[in-house]
């Protein structure tokens, strides 16, 4: 992680450790003069911090016209490894090949 990203992360964590941030968000949620959208957003932030973010669904269409449902567990594992390797700058071979090929 770059020095700037680390600094921003550390500063954000330092600021958010202060109870005043939580108190501010709680006051927005409870406030009568705040816009509804601001109250909802403050509620979302508090809930995400208190209970974790809810799982997000993603739509996956397929590889080169093939559906993922037709892939074996080994093929899916190879695909996941290849995608993880790509994001780290490393290409891994074997992804997307059918078993026995």
Mean pLDDT across all amino acids: 77
Q: How far is it from the N-terminal to the C-terminal residue, by CA?
A: 39 Å
Secondary structure class reads mainly alpha
**Overall number of strands:** 0
Given as residue ranges, the uncertain stretches (5+ residues, pLDDT < 50) are: 89-101
Helix content: 55-70%
Q: How would the global form be characterised?
A: elongated
Q: Can you count the helices?
A: 4
Largest sheet at a glance? none
Write down the Rg.
Answer: 22 Å
Ordered list of secondary-structure elements with their pairings:
Elements: H1 3-17, H2 19-30, H3 36-51, H4 73-87
Helix pairs in contact: 2-3
Structural write-up:
The longest helix is centred in the middle third of the chain and has 16 residues, at 36-51. This protein has helices at 3-17, 19-30, 36-51, 73-87. The protein contains four helices and no strands. It is elongated, with a radius of gyration of 22 Å. It is mainly α and 101 residues long. The chain has a domain at 3-51.
Question: What descriptors fit this protein?
Answer:
disordered C terminus; 101 residues; mainly alpha; elongated; 57% helix
Task: Give a summary of the structure in a few sentences.
The chain is mainly alpha-helical. It is built from four helices and no strands.
């Amino acid at each position: 992680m770059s020095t700037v990203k680390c600094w921003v992360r550390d500063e954000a964590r330092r600021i958010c450790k202060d109870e005043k941030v939580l108190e501010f968000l709680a006051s927005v949620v409870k406030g009568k003069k705040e816009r509804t959208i601001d109250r909802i957003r403050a509620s979302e932030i508090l809930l995400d911090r208190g209970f974790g973010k809810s799982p997000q669904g993603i739509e996956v269409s397929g590889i080169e016209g093939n559906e993922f449902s037709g892939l074996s567990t080994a093929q899916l594992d190879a695909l996941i490894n290849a995608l993880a390797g790509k994001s780290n700058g490393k290409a891994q071979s074997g992804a997307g090949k059918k078993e026995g090929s």
